[in-house]
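Archive entry: two folds, one per protein. Generate the first.
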Amino acid sequence: MNIQIHESAFVDEGASIGEGSRIWHFVHVCGGARIGANVSLGQGVFVGNQVTIGDNCKIQNNVSVYDNVSLEEGVFCGPSMVFTNVYNPRSLVDRKKEYRDTLIKRGATLGANSTIVCGITIGEFAFVGAGAVVNKDVPAYALMVGVPAKQIGWMSEYGEQLALPLAGKGRATCKYTGATYVLDGTVVTREKNKG
């Protein structure tokens, strides 16, 4: 298989890694991890046993993807962003049975140094700004910034802010791709191509 694994990386027996994936310096992939095709794991990445990473994900340097985190296809994890899997950790209390599932849906971006508190879902193509702390579910296409993260807009699949209000009705077109997005209430969807 066409998989690139740097000599300093540790990939435990049993790990599943898809075709075309690249594993860089000082990465540790645990044996239960499931990693798709064309995934890039940057320097110092850790991937736990109960982790699924979809095709075409990019995980930048110094990111730990802990147990019970699932990334769908095309998720971008910026440098040093943080996942958690226990809501109220204590060193003196064993809480491994209390891990909360975290789901990052297709195409979402998690900016550098952002923190994703466990037990939430981040919608398709949502965009979490650098340094944001996300502690609740995020809708598809939402642009989130701050501590705690608040929605300030909507993003296209291309990664550009859309000229839409936070709620109500509206339509906006991505100037780079021509794709049209429709706001209905507090939900944005991409309009299907006609024909």
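Generate the second and append.
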Amino acid sequence: MINGVFQRTVDALKRLPGIGPKTAQRLGFYLLKMPEAEVVSIAQAIVDLKAKIRFCPVCQNMTEHALCEICADPTRDRSRIVVVEEPSTLYAIERTGEYRGLYHVLLGAISPLDGVTPDDIKSKELLDRLGGDQVQEVIMATDPNIEGEATALYLTRLIKPLGVKVTRLAYGIPVGIDLEYADDVTLIKSLEGRREL
């Protein structure tokens, strides 16, 4: 029933992940009520995002500079690389403040059903980084789902012959949960990943 500019805006918003038709329409109405300066500010931020952000040529993290801040930091432990699917996972790990090594962002995960092959992720760039003796350990931090497991397994098969240690993030029971509510797979993975106290 609504055509023109408003419908084009709703259709554009629907292309964002997690935004369905009703949410897109609600956002469209909300944008209409906002002061023009705020809407222009949002629009400019999106334009700047596409114009100024690129992927680090070393680790594929987002950056506005020649290298991302992590790759450019000489105090980082260069003997370890955590492999993640997306920059958002990198930032989640960084928030903990516990890891001071390097990262490699794959920008996806192998998913044959979705047409994503090993050539579509940044696996070659990761292997190129493992050429010298500097990297001693690669820590797989791909998502704990079918695609993430397939990606970790594929990369492990490529990395092991290079003599680099490959580890996987532990799976387990979240802190604060009652064990009776944990699913079977989580309990199995927790038992497998147990450690000595």
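Annotation attached to the second fold: Residues 89 and 139 are 13 Å apart (CA to CA). The longest strand covers residues 77-84.
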